Amino acid sequence: MTQGSSPASAAARTAPQSNTSAPAVRIDGRRPDQLRPITIRRDWLDHAEGSVLVEFGRTRVLCAASVTEGVPRWRKGSGLGWVTAEYAMLPRATHERSDRESVKGRIGGRTHEISRLVGRAIRAVVDYKALGENTIVLDCDVLQADGGTRTAAITGAYVALADAVSWLKKNGSLRAGKEPLTGSVAAVSVGIIGGVPMLDLCYEEDVRAETDMNVVCTGDGRFVEVQGTAEGAPFDRAELTELLDLATAGCAELTAVQRQALGW
Q: Record-annotated residues binding phosphate (predicted)?
């Protein structure tokens, strides 16, 4: 944490809301095309080179970026850096307590899947050569889950990564003139509920969705990953296009929140 700052004083940023007149049909009163309140608080931890508490409504994820000089053995001597991610949930992040995976003695398939997703998403905007032989590990821990934990993790992890890169620059650990970040990345969920496409699903919406999708986009609107499943009923091409349009608009709003939080 920077000197003189604290979680209580860290700037909170809220996503701008659309002014369209879509009907308010959702359980929390939002329009179908409306994000939940989005808050990003930087410098949440004292020791991490970058840290963020990100909130998508009642979903809260703590993202920490840790810098290590050097790279994994298979990367040594390449002149290239490495960025990876780990995702986990607190035992009582959900309605009922779940056992810690460390106690179970194995990491669950969902945890592996989301960890890989966060890593892939973040690496899409990293220049390994500019990073040099440094490793950045992003730890994303869900404090409270109300839907969209993986998308919140990606959105928050990017901001933590940006602060870690700034730390590397200030400490002279990067070659002059090199910029490891080639852009930004954010993610949001979309789905179809009762035949209506909706943005940024909370848990109660997610479990009722006929179609559920997670979309990762760069700050300039390109797709990094699209994960979509027909949970209750198949969807057609027109519905897919509508969901992707909804997601890209949502990611654009999230990008604006990220930039505001970073002071860019």
A: 110, 148-150
